[in-house]
Amino acid sequence: MNVIELTPPYLIFLGDVTTMTYAKTGAGLAQWRPELCAGQLSLVTGGVDLGLPAMTVAEAKAQGVRSLVVGTASVGGGIQPSWESTLVEAAEAGLDIVAGLHVRLASNARLATAAKASGVRLVDVRIPPADLPVGTGKKRSGMRLLTMGTDCAVGKKYTALALEAAMRDAGMAASFRASGQTGVMIAGEGLPIDAVVADFISGAAELLSPDNAPDHWDIIEGQGALTHPGYAAVTTGLLLGSQPDAFVVCHEAGRSQVSGWEDYPLPSIDEIIQRTVAVGSITNPGIHCVGVSVNTSTLAPDERRPYLEQLERELGLPCVDPLIDGMAAIVERLRLETNSASAREAGAAL
Question: How distant, in Å, are the alpha carbons of 52, 110, 292 from that of 90?
Answer without folding.
Answer: 18, 12, 43
